[in-house]
Amino acid sequence: MKFLFLIVPFFTAQLVMAQNYQLSDFFTYDATLEQKVDEIFDGLNDTARAGQMIVAAAGRLGKSQEHLNDLLRKNYLGGILLLNGTKEGFTTMVQDFNALNKKNGGLPLLYSADAEPSLIGYKIKNCTPVKKANEMISRAEVRKFANSICKDLKDIGINYNYAPVVDMSPNEAISYRAFGDNADTAKIWSRIFIEETQKQGIVATAKHFPGHGYVVGDTHKQLVYIDGEMREVDNYKPLIEAGVLSIMVAHIAVKNNATYSTNDLPASVSPAIVTGLLKGQLKFKGLVVTDAMNMGGVASIPNCELKAAKAGCDLILMPVDEEKALMDIVGEMGTNEVFKKQVYAAVRKIIRLKICLGLL
Q1: Beta strand pairing status for 160-161 and 224-227?
Q2: 319 upstream amide cis, omega within 30 of 0
Q3: How far apart are CA 43 and CA 129, in angstroms?
Q4: Is the whole-model pTM more than 0.85?
Q5: Do 47 and 326 meet the contact criterion of CB atoms below 8 Å apart?
Q6: Where are the domains of the chain?
Q7: For residues 325, 329, 332 and 337, what is the CA-based torsion angle, rounded to 10 degrees?
Q8: Fewer CB within 10 A of the end CB, N or C, for the chain?
Q9: Can 220 be counted among the known catalytic residues?
Q10: Where are the alpha helices (DSSP H) in the chain?
Q11: Cβ distance 64 to 80 under 8 Å?
């Protein structure tokens, strides 16, 4: 009996090490997966933990490679968005970042892109041509082009796609990026795109919550408003039920809505929208990512990244100053126990996702 008692723990440990997970496991409780998350989480200090929430941008419209290398050496990043470049250039960049990150002992990175059908040809040149979202005519085309996009992303090393656009098409800044102005088409085609993407081992992102289609204006330039009813929230319900792993929150304010008014602030920094509506009412358990924090609709708000984290966002995308954003979050963790636990929950989700991506 003593011999068996000694051998069983060793065999169990071997099983823990050998277990492979997939994205389809993210929402499923698994004791071994929980244990693995705990082991990795416990090996980080609070600065490195909060750093997992920060996603900086590389490429023509992002920060320099030298700047990002410095952040990686400090273990201040959880991911990198590849923003405007070529397929070949980004492939080399990912290899360089991975080599430095591995040398520095950092957790593997989430590599993301705005690889929407309507944008990938502009954002990542030399990828396989695909139809724009508003030009697709069938579910089969959505499936075909989703798989084509995934192949190019995997060639580069990208594991997280900020697509599809779930918004309706009336807004001129969104129209060519959306599947159309029919709600049923938007929901069904978005679901197909998400399912095909996540089958290929790449995280899909439904955006721009709570809905950009019926607002007037462009959040890249200024704060825009949903006036009254949030007509596009229902588009997200079947996608959450279908297992979408990520939802992007827009820098859109809500007014004349008794329950979800954001008081002239964008939804991305609103606890009522992120925690109350998305996580609470809609029961979304995946990762909530902000739209880019350098956009005109949010960047002028003091400590906007900290406010987004306090609102319930798990990933803070493209802070103007990544190190300041991180230190604001860490500073708040030191004085606010409720917020600290909230950050811990976000970081555990990020680690869990990295395990399910096969990165850890």
Answers
A1: unpaired
A2: no
A3: 43
A4: yes
A5: yes
A6: 22-356
A7: 170
A8: N
A9: yes
A10: 2-18, 31-42, 46-51, 65-73, 87-104, 120-123, 139-156, 183-199, 237-241, 271, 304-311, 322-333, 337-356
A11: no
Q: Which of 114, 152, 167, 291 is catalytic?
A: 291
Report how far residue 139's alpha carbon sits from residue 187's, in angstroms, rounded to the nearest whole number. 11
Buried b (16+ CB within 10 A) or exposed e, 209-248: bbbbbbbebbbeeebbbbeeebebbebbeebbeebbbbbb
pLDDT, one tens digit for every residue, the chain (360 residues): 333 333 333 333 333 444 799 999 999 999 999 999 999 999 999 999 999 999 999 999 999 999 999 999 999 999 999 999 999 999 999 999 999 999 999 999 999 999 999 999 999 999 999 999 999 999 999 999 999 999 999 999 999 999 999 998 777 778 889 998 889 999 999 999 999 999 999 999 999 999 988 887 777 778 889 999 999 999 999 999 999 999 999 999 999 999 999 999 999 999 999 999 999 999 999 999 999 999 988 999 999 999 999 999 999 999 999 999 999 999 999 999 999 999 999 999 999 999 999 999
Distance CA 360, CA 35 (A): 13
Q: How far apart are CA 259 and CA 278, in angstroms?
A: 13
Question: What's the rounded Cα separation, in Å, for the pair 129 and 132?
Answer: 9
Q: Are 209 and 247 in contact (CB under 8 A)?
A: yes
Region label for 267, one of left (φ > 0), alpha (ψ between -120 and 50) or beta (otherwise): alpha
Domain boundaries 22-356, corresponding CATH code = 3.20.20.300
Select from 269, 337, 340 the least CA-distant residue to 306: 269
322 token code pair: 């990544």
Torsion of CA 154, 121, 67, 64, to 10 degrees: 140
Q: How far apart are CA 296 and CA 188, in angstroms?
A: 32
Q: What are phi and psi of 250, to 5 degrees?
A: -90, 165
Q: Is-catalytic flag, 212?
A: no
Nearest alpha-carbon partner for 79 in 318, 343, 344: 318
Length of the chain as a residue count: 360
Catalytic residue among 25, 30, 70, 220: 220
